[in-house]
Amino acid sequence: MTAHSTDLKMLLKDPSLLETRAFVAGEWVDADDGRTFEVRNPARGDVIARVADLSRAEVKRAIEAAQAAMKDWAARTAKDRAKVMRRWFELMMENQDDLGTILTAEQGKPLPEAKGEIAYGASFIEWFGEEAKRVYGETIPGHMADKRITVLRQPIGVVASITPWNFPNAMITRKCGPALAVGCGFVARPAAETPLSALALAVLGERAGLPKGILSVVTSSRSSDIGKEFCENPLIRKLTFTGSTEVGRILLRQAADQVLKCSMELGGNAPFIVFDDADLDAAVEGAMASKFRNNGQTCVCANRIYVQAGVYDEFAKRLAKAVDKLTVGDGLKDGTTTGPLINADAVEKVEEHIADALGRGAQVVTGGKRHDLGGSFFQPTVVTNVPADAKVSTEETFGPLAPLFRFETEEEVVAKANDTIFGLAAYFYARDIGRITRVQESLEYGIVGVNTGIISTEVAPFGGVKQSGLGREGSRHGIEDYLEMKYVCLSV
Ligand SMILES: NC(=O)C1=CN([C@@H]2O[C@H](COP(=O)(O)OP(=O)(O)OC[C@H]3O[C@@H](n4cnc5c(N)ncnc54)[C@H](OP(=O)(O)O)[C@@H]3O)[C@@H](O)[C@H]2O)C=CC1
Ligand SMILES: O=C(O)[C@H](O)CS(=O)(=O)O
Which residues have C-beta within 8 Å of that of residue 366, sequence separation ≥ 6? Predict the structure, then answer.
């Protein structure tokens, strides 16, 4: 199967899930001025849809509608909101195949991986529908005989969301799940590269019973304009962003004017450390999962692979052998394990990092070039003997490049792993319990995978330290960002 502009609908069991209008205030609308922007299939480069290109005026209407809808939605019981969230979860899973096909068509990841993202995305809707029923307040022993102290937990208000193209479903549900479950209004602006998954999510949310106006999906090619509306509109109480640290800084600066509450899931530079006491086959498996998931386009991908000298050559040989088994191709084609990169810029970033490493003395073990398929396809690549001053040491590649660095001691590698402005995810493989305890405590990261390369789940707090972000998503902690605490002092 391939997704050309005329046949994507033909690939769907329910073609009505392929929506190209924006979802504003409970209505499916074109842009006021009729403008649209193109969505392209990264595997072929052809246009698969033309989507409503909204301006700030339409976004303003969406925000006002969310504010109006919140009154009744927040007044409903958590149990009642949970029923709607549960139905939404069920509809996502019932339509997993179609949602996966739409996601692969616009983002490129292999269909099995896209369907996996749908299940991952749906898990946040399920999880937070349940968590909302456990948002407890508290009473505090009064400080004076005639005072009674209570603490209420209430929805923070209208939430604005800006999300990236690499997980077009799950990055939205990881935010709208908790926000809607506790009673907030939600206005989502998906990446221009991948709006179709967000619109399909809204189709199912409407069918599940979300009240008119409580959720809007404002599609636009003008990300900066929409971001400014989110930061400047006084009805917005919370901005939640997932994307690069560079854009996160821009939004934080803009949000400062209104002292707008922000949560930021930003860039990463994950170290992946293999100690000489590691199970090497397990370490290779973990490195493959962490590095090549979504073709290396995740913020938690292994970005630097440190291997202790005693096992360096053997690990490099086994990793290259595993990489050579990857099958690059169209994500909708059976057997594809590795799709295209999102666009030409992404290809150039990978090439830049490879050229820089080779220029500093590294060697290519496998891959290293654009794929014969052309376009934004790239050969999964392993390079060895990468020096510490290579660009890939400090910059996130966001592509299928596995750079191997050699190290001698535990102290040396922990210092190198921590020597970055980022602090999202880190991984290491070892079996000595003393080493595992020391290293997991010493790594300056929000997430540490020990003898595993995959850490993503709705039940755990996902987020980074340093310049990888602010706040946590998922787990019981992930609901806090969408609640305000109110202290009530009653004089009796
Ligand atoms: N910590 C985490 O969980 C994650 C972090 N990331 C990080 O994001 C990067 C890759 O994603 P990528 O999409 O390229 O990141 P970007 O930061 O470029 O874009 C993220 C989103 O922000 C929008 N955007 C860009 N500029 C502005 C602006 N000035 N104002 C408002 N919105 C804006 C983009 O819209 P448009 O694309 O339409 O311009 C997109 O929707 C990597 O650095 C990766 O590590 C990605 C996913 C998860
Ligand atoms: O966009 C990303 O990189 C995701 O946050 C990674 S994960 O949550 O799918 O692991």
Answer: 320, 323, 324, 379, 380, 381, 382
Tell me whether residue 459 is in a domain: no
Q: What is the ipTM of this complex?
A: 0.93
Distance 164 CA to ligand 1 centre (A): 5
Do 344 and 446 lie in one domain? The reply is yes
Q: Which CATH number goes with the domain that contains 238?
A: 3.40.605.10
Count of structural domains, the chain: 2
Claim to verify: residue 23 and residue 142 sit in the same structural domain: yes
Q: What are 124-161's pLDDT values in tens digits? A: 999 999 999 999 999 999 999 999 999 999 999 999 99
Compute, in angstroms, the gap from residue 300 CA to the centroid of ligand 2: 6
pLDDT in tens, 167-218: 999 999 999 999 999 999 999 999 999 999 999 999 999 999 999 999 999 9
State the residue range of the domain holding 233.
8-266+468-489
Cα separation, 108 vs 129, in Å, equals 30
Residue 170: nearest ligand to its CA? 2
Residue 290 Cβ < 6 Å to ligand 2: no
Does the pTM surpass 0.95? The reply is yes
User: Are 230 and 84 part of one and the same domain?
Assistant: yes
Residue 119 CB-density burial (10 A; 0-12 exposed, 13-18 middle, 19+ buried)? middle
Q: Specify the pairing of strand 22-24 against strand 27-29.
A: antiparallel
Q: Cα(291) to centroid of ligand 1, in Å? A: 19
Residue 2 has pLDDT above 60, yes or no: no
* Any atom of ligand 2 within 6 Å of the Cβ of 425: no
Same domain, 255 and 279: no
CATH number for 396: 3.40.309.10
Residue 148 lies in a domain: yes
Q: Which residues does residue 187 pair with via DSSP β-bridges, in sequence order?
A: 160, 216
As given in the structure block, the two tokens for residue 293 are 């998931």
**Which ligand sits closest to the CA of 294?**
2
Q: Which of 265, 285, 396, 458 is catalytic?
A: 265
Looking at the structure, tell me whether residues 345 and 294 fall in a common domain: yes
End-to-end CA distance of the chain: 71
Map tokens 């293999």 to a residue: 274
Do 345 and 209 lie in one domain? The reply is no
265 catalytic? Reply is yes
* Residue 138 domain flag: yes
Residue 167 CB less than 6 A away from ligand 2 = yes
226: CA distance to ligand 1 center in Å?
13
